Amino acid sequence: MPATRVSRSEVLSYNNAVKLKRSIKYDNFLIAVFLIVFITFALTIFKPDSAHAATLNVASGSDTISVDGNCHLSEAIQNINDQATTNSDCIAGDGNNDTINLPSGTITLTANLPEIQQSVSFEGQGMDTTVIDGVDTYSMFYDSSTVCAGENRIVEFLGMTIVNHAVQAGIFINCSDLVLNGIEIDGSSSMIDVDGVLLVGNGSTGNRVIDANNIYIHDYDVDIPIFYAFVVGNTTTGNLTTTVNIDTVTIENITSTGITNNLVIMSGNVQESNGTVNAIINNATVQNITSTGGSVNGITASSASTGGSPQTTTVSLNLNNSTVRNVSGLSGIYGPSVGVAIGGLSLVAGSVMNTDLTTTNVIVSNNTSDGFPLNCTIKDLTSDFGGMGTTNYQFNSSGGNLTDDTSCDSYFTHPTDQTNVTNLSSFLGTIGNYGGLVPTIPLLPGSPAIDSGITVAGVTTDARGVSRPQCYGYDSGAYEYDGTCPDPPSSSQVLSYPESKTKTTAYLILNQTVTNPTVSERKFSDLPQDSNLDYPANLTDFSLNTTPGATETVTLYYQLSGNPSDYTARKYNTNTKQYSYIQGASITREDYNNTSMLKLTYQITDGGPLDQDNQANGIIVDPVGLATTKSSGSLVNTGSLTILSTLLGSIIIAIVAYTYIDYRRFKKPLMIAEPNIAKQYTYWHHLKVVRLPIAKYRVMVVFERRG
Prior knowledge:
Elements: H1 8-14, H2 17-45, E1 55-57, E2 61-63, H3 73-82, E3 98-101, E4 105-109, E5 120-123, E6 130-133, E7 141-142, E8 154-163, E9 171-173, E10 177-186, E11 196-200, E12 208-222, E13 226-234, E14 241-256, E15 261-269, E16 276-291, E17 295-305, E18 312-320, E19 323-329, E20 338-346, E21 352-360, E22 363-365, E23 368-369, E24 372-373, E25 376-380, E26 390-399, E27 402-403, E28 492-499, E29 504-511, E30 515-522, E31 533-534, E32 539-545, E33 551-558, E34 568-573, E35 578-581, E36 586-592, E37 595-605, E38 619-629, H4 635-638, H5 640-673, H6 675-680, H7 683-706
Parallel strand pairs: 1-3, 2-4, 3-5, 4-6, 5-8, 6-8, 7-9, 8-10, 9-11, 10-12, 11-13, 12-14, 13-15, 14-16, 15-17, 16-18, 16-19, 17-20, 18-21, 19-22, 19-23, 20-25, 21-26, 22-27
Antiparallel strand pairs: 23-24, 28-29, 29-33, 30-32, 31-38, 32-38, 33-37, 34-35, 34-38, 36-37
Helix pairs in contact: 5-7
C-alpha cells in the first residue's frame, strides 16, 4: 500500500498526551540516574585535595619584607616555609610543590634570603632576563642541615642569572633533590672573594637526585685557599646514594691566587660518608681556569675519608662528550694541576675509597702544571697526608677521547682514542655563543675531533642542542661540527649497490678496520609488512667482520626526496620476522657524489640488540632501511580526513540547529493546548515524538517510491 503523508499535528495526535506523560516520567528517571552516576564519578575523580600547590608572583626591585602591596622574594620564601600568610603581601604556600614566579628585571637583595625549608620551584624568565643581585653582601639560595632530618623535598631553579652573591655560594643545596635548568652565575662584577659558586651535598637522611642542565658559571677572580665552582657529592654519615645527572655545563675564566686547591667540577664523597655517588656529565665545557698560587683541577672524580669510623665509599663518574682546555696552575699539597683527574685520600684505618672515572668522546687539550703539559692524572693523596686507609682507582676509556700530550696514554687505551695529537688545540675555535643557552668551543674545519667519537647512550645532541652525528660519525667534545662535511676519511671503505625502487645507487660507508664487508638490496615486497610503513628505497642487507664485541659506525646514503624528519630508521630481523627502531640513529640530508641524498648514521655493537645473530663473535649482520608512512589510501596524508571531518561536523551542527528551532516553534502552541505537559516537554522529547517519526516516514516514502 502506498504511504500516506502525515502532518505534524497527526504525529502529535498519534503520540497522545498519556504516552507523552509516561515518556517524560521514564526519561526523567533515566536522566536522574545518569546525573547521580555522573556526579558521583566526578566527585571521585575530581575530589579536591586538602592542599593545592600555590603560585606566588614576586616583584622586581629591592627585596624587602614590608607591607607595600608587592610580594617580594624573601616574603614569598617565608610564606612557603610557614605555609601561611606570614607576610600579607603574598599568598600562603599551600602544598608541597609551590612555585615562585620571578619577574623580568633585577631583584636586589637587602638581606640574606630566608633558608629554603619546603619543596619549591623558582621559575625565572630566562638567563639575563631575570637577575638576582646579592650586592656582594647577602646569601642567596640555600638550605641547611638543621632542617634536613626527615625531609623529602625537591627544589628547582629555572631560567635566571645570579650575580654578586656572598661568600657562601650562589646556590647551596644540602637537603633536597635539586633540579637546575638555564642558570647563569656571573662573578665578573663581584668585589669579594667567595668560597664557591654552586655547591650541592647530601646532608640529609635519604638518597638524593641532582639534575642540572644548561649551567653557565664564569668570570671569578678570587684569593682564598680553596675555591669550588661546581661540586656535588655525599657529605655526611650514612649509607646514602647521591645520583647526579649533568648535561650541558660551561665553566670559564676562573682565576685564583689561592695556595691550596681549586676545583672546577667535582663529584665525590667527602668527610664521614659511608655512601655512593653515581654521576654522569655530558656536554661539559671547561676553559681558562688558572691558579697562580696552588693546584687546580678541571673535572675530577674524588673520594675523601677525613675522620670518624671506617667507611666504604664508592664514587663513579661517567664523563662524556666534554671539552677541557687551558687549565693551568702549580703543584701543591693537593698534587699537580690537571685537566681531568681522579683522586682522593683515605685517612682512617679500615676505610676503603673506590673511585672510578670513565671517559668517552672527551677532548683534553693544553692543560699544564708548573708550565708542563698535564691533561690526565690519578692523584692519590693518602700517603701525603699520613692516611692509613685503602684507595682503589679506575681511570677507564670507552673510546673517542683525544689529547695533545702523553699524560693520558695509560688511560686512553681504547682503539678509537687518540693521544699526543699535536695540532688538537689549533682546531678548537674561540668560545662563544653558537646556539643554545651556554657558550661552547667550536670544532674548526679539519679538526681531528670530527667523526672521531663513538655512540654514547642518551647523548643525541651537543651543548647547543644540535643533533649528533652530523657527518660520517659522532664528534668528540661538547660541540658537534655542523659545517660542510669533509670527504669520507681515508680510513673508510665505500661500498655501493643498485637500488631497484629509486633506480639509483645506494652507498654504504664503513671503517677501514672492518673486514669482508658485503652489501646488497633486500626488497621490502619480499618481507612481511611493517604496520603502515613503507620503504621507498627498500632495505640494505650488509655484513662485516670485526673484533668480537666491537662497536662500528655505519653510514648509508639513499637518493630519496623529502625531509629527514619524514623518515625513521628501522631494522628487520630475519629470525624473528620483526621490525624495530634503531635507537640513536641520525638521519640528515647531505650532498654526496654531487647529489642531494639522505644520510643514515648509527652505531652497531657486535652481539648487541642490532646485530642479527646477537652473538659477540666478530660477525655483524644487519638488514636496515629508511621507513616512511604509506601515502596511498591514507586520509592523513591527503588531507581528506580533515575535509570529511569538517563536512560531517557542519552537517551535525546544522541538524542540531534546525531541530532546536523546530522544537521552540512547536512548543509554543503546545503551551496553550497542554500547559502542564509543555512545561516538561524538552528538546529530547521533541526529537522522539516529532522529528524521529517524521524522519522515519520520509525514509519509508523514499524506499517505496524507489520500489
